[in-house]
Automatic annotation (TrEMBL), chain A:
Allows the formation of correctly charged Asn-tRNA(Asn) or Gln-tRNA(Gln) through the transamidation of misacylated Asp-tRNA(Asn) or Glu-tRNA(Gln) in organisms which lack either or both of asparaginyl-tRNA or glutaminyl-tRNA synthetases. The reaction takes place in the presence of glutamine and ATP through an activated phospho-Asp-tRNA(Asn) or phospho-Glu-tRNA(Gln). PANTHER family: GLUTAMYL-TRNA(GLN) AMIDOTRANSFERASE SUBUNIT C, MITOCHONDRIAL. GO terms for molecular function: asparaginyl-tRNA synthase (glutamine-hydrolyzing) activity; ATP binding; glutaminyl-tRNA synthase (glutamine-hydrolyzing) activity; transferase activity. Signal peptide: none annotated. GO terms for biological process: glutaminyl-tRNAGln biosynthesis via transamidation; regulation of translational fidelity; translation. Belongs to the GatC family. Its EC number is 6.3.5.-. Pfam families: GatC. It catalyses: L-aspartyl-tRNA(Asn) + L-glutamine + ATP + H2O = L-asparaginyl-tRNA(Asn) + L-glutamate + ADP + phosphate + 2 H(+); L-glutamyl-tRNA(Gln) + L-glutamine + ATP + H2O = L-glutaminyl-tRNA(Gln) + L-glutamate + ADP + phosphate + H(+). It comes from Pseudothioclava arenosa. Heterotrimer of A, B and C subunits. This is Aspartyl/glutamyl-tRNA(Asn/Gln) amidotransferase subunit C.
From TrEMBL, chain B:
Belongs to the amidase family. GatA subfamily. The gene is gatA. Its EC number is 6.3.5.7. Keywords: ATP-binding, Ligase, Nucleotide-binding, Protein biosynthesis, Transferase. GO terms for molecular function: ATP binding; glutaminyl-tRNA synthase (glutamine-hydrolyzing) activity; transferase activity. It catalyses: L-glutamyl-tRNA(Gln) + L-glutamine + ATP + H2O = L-glutaminyl-tRNA(Gln) + L-glutamate + ADP + phosphate + H(+). It comes from Pseudothioclava arenosa. The active site is at K77, S155, S179. Residues 24-472 form the Amidase domain. This is Glutamyl-tRNA(Gln) amidotransferase subunit A. Heterotrimer of A, B and C subunits. InterPro entries: Amidase, Amidase_CS, Amidase_dom, AS_sf, GatA. NCBIfam families: gatA. One of its GO terms (cellular component) is glutamyl-tRNA(Gln) amidotransferase complex. It comes from the Bacteria.
C-alpha cells in the first residue's frame, strides 16, 4: 500500500498538522516507506487470535463514582497560552 | 575517587555511617554538571532545589529516619512532571510548561529522601534512538574513541550520558521500545524496564500508554534494585498500576543462580550481526553456565514481526496521546494570521511545535487508525502482539527462568551518521528490546564488555512478569562475572 500526495494531505489534516504543499511528495514517500515495512505483518497467520487489549491479565480497577479531586481552576489555567476570566481563550469559532 | 562517582549503595552506606553528608555529595555532582556542558545532558539544572533537599536529607539521616535513597542526588528525565520545574519532553510544543503537580515516580523518590539535580534531555516525546530529536540539540556520549561525537542512544540519552559521566549517582528513564536499555548499553551502565504496571505512569508524559514504563538507570545492578524499589508503588492514580506489593529487590541479590534455566532464543541471531556482538553473547552464555545455570535453546517464532507491530501500535497510541497538544491548555501556540480560525490554530501550532520525527509518527498513527485501515493495520498488529506475548508465555511455561539476548545490534554510532538514513533504519536499533515492551515483561541491560574500538556493549536479560527480583539476581551474576569496570576518560 503506498500513500499518494492526496492521501498525505488528508492524513496531515486529520492529524491537524500544517504541511506545506511542496512538502507533501516527500511526506508521501516517507509514509509509504514505513507502511511497506509494516506490510510484513500480512505474512502472519492471525486466524482465531484475539487482538491484545491488556498487557497483563488484569481487570481494570473500579472505584466508587465520587468526586475525589478538583477545585483548582487557577492551577489548571496557569500554563494556558491565553486564559481569560477563568476560561481558556481560543480564536472565534464560526460554523 | 570524588563523591559524584559513588554508587547509590556506597553513598547510602557512607551517609548512614556519617562519613559524608548529602550536601557534600550533591555539591560534587553540581560541580561535575557545571563542567560538563559539552555533553548537553541536562536541559534544566536545579542546584538550589538540590541543596535544599540535601540539607533536609542530612537532617533525616541525623534523626535516624533514612530510607535507602535518602540523600542520593539524581537526574530526572524531562518526561516526568516536576512541580514548578520546566517539563517539556524535549519538545518545543511544551515550551514554558511548568507542571502544577508532581509525577508519582518523582514524588516517591522525594518521599524517600532523594535529591533532584535537574532535568535530563531525551528524544522528543521519547521518540528516537539517538537523542538527536531533542529540541535542546543532541546529547553527547561521554565515551569517545576518535574525533567523532557519539550518540548516547535514546530516548533516555540524557539520563545515560549523565550517569556514565558521573553527573549524578543515578537517573530516571522511561522505556517504550528500548529507551532505557539501548542507551544503557551504549554508555556502559545498567538500565531496567520493569514489568508493565510495576511503576506508576501518572505524571509521566505519555507516548504509547500500553508500552510505556519507567525505570532506573544506574552504575550497578545493586543500585538498580535499590532505586527500582523506591520508584515502584501501587498507585490509585494509574488504572494500570498493578495491585502487587513491591518486594525488597536488593534482598533478591543472592548471587546464586544454580539450576536456573536460561533461554537463548535462536531468532535473535540475526543475519549480518556484527561478530563482536555475537561473541559478547556467547561470552555471556558461558558466564551464566559457569555460575551453574542450565543453558537452553528456545524459539520465539514471532520475533521478526515485533518491530513492524510496534511501529503500528506505538504511533497509533501516540497519535491519540499527542492530540492534547493543541495550543489551548499549555505550551506553545502559533501566532495566527488575519482570518485564521481554530483549525488553523491547531494546525500551525502542531506544525511549529512538533519536530519531524514526532510529526511522522503522529501521521502514521493517524493513518493506521483511520477508517478503512483500522483492521488491516492496527487490529492485525494487536493480534500479532498477542502472538509475540504467547511465545514468551510458552517459554516460561516450559520452565525458563530468564532469557539472554544482546541489548543492541551495535555499539554507539556517531551523531549525525544516521541523518540520511531511512527512518526504518533507525527503528532497527530497537530490534532486541521491543519484544519485551510488547509482551509487558521486565528486561535489563547489563554492561558486559568493550568492542575493538573501546566502546561498551551490553547484554539483555528478560524475566518472568513480576519477577524483577529474580531478574536482577541473574543480572547481578552476569555483572560479577563480566567484571565490567571501564569508565569513559574525561575529555569534556
Amino acid at each position: 500500500m503506498s500513500i499518494d500526495i492526496d492521501t498525505a494531505r488528508k492524513v496531515a489534516h486529520l492529524a491537524r498538522i500544517a504541511v506545506p504543499e511542496e512538502a507533501l511528495p516527500e511526506l508521501a514517500r516517507e509514509l509509504s516507506g514505513i507502511l511497506t515495512f509494516m506490510e510484513q505483518l500480512n505474512e502472519v497467520d492471525v486466524e482465531g487470535i484475539e487482538p491484545m487489549t491488556s498487557v497483563t491479565p488484569m481487570r481494570l480497577k473500579r472505584r466508587v463514582d465520587e468526586v475525589t479531586d478538583g477545585g483548582y481552576q487557577d492551577k489548571i489555567l496557569k500554563n494556558a497560552p491565553d486564559a481569560r476570566e477563568g476560561f481558556f481563550a481560543v480564536p472565534k469559532v464560526v460554523e | 575517587m570524588s563523591l559524584n562517582q559513588l554508587t547509590i549503595a556506597a553513598a547510602r552506606d557512607a551517609l548512614k555511617a556519617g562519613d559524608v553528608t548529602s550536601v557534600e555529595i550533591t555539591e560534587a555532582c553540581i560541580a561535575a554538571i557545571e563542567g560538563a556542558d559539552a555533553l548537553n545532558a541536562y536541559c534544566a539544572k536545579t542546584p538550589e532545589i538540590a541543596l535544599e533537599q540535601a540539607k533536609a536529607a542530612d537532617a533525616r539521616l541525623k534523626a535516624g529516619d533514612a530510607p535507602a535513597m535518602c540523600g542520593i542526588p539524581l537526574g530526572i528525565k524531562d518526561l516526568f512532571a516536576t512541580k514548578g520545574v520546566g517539563t517539556q519532553a524535549a519538545s518545543n510544543i511544551l515550551a514554558g510548561f511548568k507542571p502544577e503537580y508532581e509525577s508519582t515516580v518523582t514524588q516517591n523518590l522525594w518521599d524517600a529522601g532523594a535529591v533532584m539535580l535537574g532535568k535530563l534531555s531525551m528524544d522528543e516525546f521519547a521518540m528516537g534512538s539517538s537523542n538527536e530529536t531533542a529540541c535542546y540539540g543532541p546529547v553527547v556520549n561521554p565515551w569517545k574513541v576518535d574525533d567523532r561525537k557519539l550518540t548516547p542512544g535514546g530516548s533516555s540519552g540524557g539520563s545515560a550520558s549523565a550517569v556514565a559521566a558521573d553527573l549524578c549517582l543515578a537517573a530516571t528513564g522511561t522505556d517504550t521500545g528500548g529507551s532505557i536499555r539501548q542507551p544503557a548499553a551504549f554508555t556502559g551502565i545498567v538500565g531496567i524496564k520493569p514489568t508493565y504496571g510495576r511503576v506508576s505512569r501518572w505524571g509521566v508524559v505519555a507516548f504509547a500508554s500500553s508500552l510505556d514504563q519507567a525505570g532506573p538507570m544506574t552504575k550497578s545492578v545493586r543500585d538498580a534494585a535499590i532505586m527500582l524499589g523506591a520508584m515502584a508503588s501501587v498507585d490509585p492514580k494509574d488504572s494500570t498500576s498493578a495491585d502487587i506489593p513491591v518486594p525488597d529487590f536488593e534482598a533478591a541479590l543472592t548471587g546464586d543462580i544454580r539450576g536456573k534455566k536460561i533461554g537463548i532464543p535462536r531468532e535473535y541471531r540475526l543475519d549480518g550481526m556484527p561478530a563482536e556482538i555475537e561473541k559478547l553473547w556467547n561470552d555471556g552464555i558461558a558466564m551464566l553456565r559457569d555460575a551453574g545455570a542450565e543453558i537452553v535453546d528456545i524459539s520465539l517464532p514471532h520475533t521478526k514481526y515485533a518491530l513492524p507491530a510496534y511501529y503500528v501500535i506505538a504511533p497509533a497510541e501516540a497519535s491519540s496521546n499527542l492530540a492534547r497538544y493543541d495550543g489551548v491548555r499549555y505550551g506553545h501556540r502559533a501566532k495566527l494570521g488575519k482570518g485564521d480560525g481554530i483549525t488553523e490554530m491547531y494546525e500551525k501550532t502542531r506544525a511549529e511545535g512538533f519536530g519531524p520525527e514526532v510529526q511522522r509518527r503522529v501521521m502514521i498513527g493517524t493513518y493506521v487508525l483511520s477508517a478503512g485501515f483500522y483492521d488491516a493495520y492496527y487490529n492485525r498488529a494487536r493480534r500479532v502482539r498477542a502472538l509475540i506475548k504467547r511465545d514468551f508465555d510458552l517459554a516460561f511455561a516450559d520452565g525458563i527462568d530468564a532469557i539472554l539476548t544482546p541489548a543492541t545490534p551495535s555499539s554507539a554510532f556517531g551523531l549525525g551518521e544516521m541523518a540520511s538514513a531511512d527512518p526504518v533504519e533507525m527503528y532497527l536499533n530497537d530490534v532486541f528490546t521491543v519484544t519485551v515492551n510488547l509482551a509487558g515483561l521486565p528486561g535489563i541491560s547489563v554492561p558486559v564488555g568493550l568492542d575493538a574500538k573501546g566502546l561498551p556493549m551490553g547484554l539483555q536479560l528478560i524475566g518472568r512478569p513480576w519477577a524483577e527480583g529474580d531478574l536482577l539476581n541473574h543480572a547481578y551474576v552476569l555483572e560479577q562475572a563480566a567484571g565490567f569496570s571501564a569508565k569513559p576518560s574525561k575529555w569534556w
